[in-house]
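Service request form, structural biology core

Requester: graduate student, group of Dr. S.
Request type: structure prediction, single chain
Budget code: on file
Notes: please return the result as structure tokens.

Sequence provided:
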Amino acid sequence: MKKNEQQLAKLLFEISEQAYPEGAPWHERQFLADLQTPTAHYLFVTRDSKIVGFLSYQLVLDEAEITNVAVLPTHQKLGVGQALLEQFFDETAVTVKEVFLEVRKSNLAAQRLYQKNGFVEIAQRRNYYQRPLEDALIFKLKRGEI
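Core staff response, request fulfilled:
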């Protein structure tokens, strides 16, 4: 385990903790484990040399699952989420045919962002989220439908 991975895991947790009203969906140790996984990838948006948002995803063959999108509250509704998705689309343009993600049913802003970028709701997971208990909506994007 590298010290910079520990520091990054701590920072990702802190950003997530601030970004979500319910608190971070992952613990710091989950970020650390993910950072050490060969199929995990992280994208960042910075302002004044400070990370203000990140997107993480798992890549397996020609499928990707977006596992986290978090933007500091001071930078929400300023295009950071869109910039992260555009980075993701650019980075995976050649290799990824399908993209999956899940979002809280109450997170309407995120749902609008995903729908604007071609994602469609395909399923619902009852009582998936804790703190508070809430359903997750599963979204899918088929490349070529962006």
